[in-house]
Structure to design on (204 residues):
C-alpha cells in the first residue's frame, strides 16, 4: 500500500495537523473559549434581530396611521352584529378623511366607558343648525334596534371624535388568531415563548 504522503522530493511532507506543538489542554481551552464567544455573538445578534422586527412593526403601524388618518388602521370584527356582511374574525381596513360621514357607511367607533371599539352602519345623520356639527346614529345590520343602548348614558348621537374610521376593505377570517389569543391568553403566552425561543436558538 502506498502512503498518500510519499513523493519523489528529498523533503518529507508532514500534515499541518501534526505541527501543533501546544499542549492538548491549552488547545481545548482555546477552542472552548472560541465557542463561548460565538454563542455570545449569536445571542446578541438574536436580540438585535428581535428589536429590529419590533421597531419595524411600530414604524409600519405609525406610517399606516398617517396614511389612513385613523388611529387604528386595522381592526378585527369580534361579534356577529354585522352579519352577513362581516363575520366574526374578519379584519377591516379603515380610512378616515375629512369628508362628511353619510348614512349607509360602515364605521368603527369608540363609546365612552368601553375599551373595545364597535363596527356598525350609520343609519341616520343629524346636522346641528347652531354649530353645523354632524352627529350620527348607528346600528348593527344583524341587530333589531339602533345603538343608543350601547352609547354612554344619556347619549343619543355619536360625534365625529367618536369615529375611528370608515371600513374600506376587509380580509375574511384572518382575525381569528387575535380572537383566540384574546379569549385564551395561555395560547398567546405559548406562542410568544415559542417565537422567543426560536429567535434565540436559531443560527444562520
Amino acid at each position: 500500500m502506498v502512503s498518500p504522503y510519499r513523493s519523489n522530493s528529498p523533503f518529507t511532507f508532514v500534515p499541518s495537523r501534526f505541527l501543533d506543538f501546544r499542549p492538548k489542554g491549552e488547545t481545548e481551552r482555546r477552542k472552548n473559549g472560541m465557542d463561548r464567544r460565538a454563542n455570545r455573538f449569536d445571542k446578541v445578534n438574536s436580540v438585535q434581530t428581535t428589536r429590529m422586527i419590533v421597531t419595524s412593526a411600530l414604524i409600519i403601524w405609525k406610517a399606516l396611521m398617517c396614511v389612513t388618518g385613523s388611529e387604528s388602521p386595522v381592526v378585527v370584527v369580534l361579534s356577529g352584529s354585522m352579519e352577513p356582511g362581516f363575520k366574526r374574525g374578519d379584519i377591516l381596513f379603515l380610512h378616515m378623511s375629512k369628508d362628511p360621514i353619510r348614512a349607509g357607511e360602515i364605521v368603527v367607533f369608540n363609546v365612552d366607558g368601553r375599551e373595545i371599539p364597535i363596527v356598525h352602519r350609520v343609519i341616520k345623520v343629524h346636522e346641528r343648525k347652531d354649530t353645523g356639527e354632524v352627529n350620527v346614529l348607528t346600528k348593527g345590520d344583524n341587530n333589531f334596534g339602533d345603538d343608543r343602548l350601547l352609547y354612554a348614558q344619556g347619549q343619543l348621537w355619536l360625534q365625529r371624535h367618536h369615529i375611528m374610521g370608515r371600513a374600506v376593505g376587509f380580509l375574511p377570517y384572518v382575525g381569528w388568531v387575535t380572537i383566540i389569543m384574546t379569549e385564551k391568553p395561555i395560547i398567546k403566552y405559548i406562542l410568544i415563548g415559542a417565537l422567543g425561543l426560536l429567535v434565540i436558538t436559531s443560527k444562520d
Remarks:
- Strands lie at 74-76, 91-95, 106-109, 118-127, 134-139, 163-171.
- Residues 74-185 form a domain with the Umud Fragment, subunit A fold (CATH 2.10.109.10).
- The longest helix spans residues 24-68.
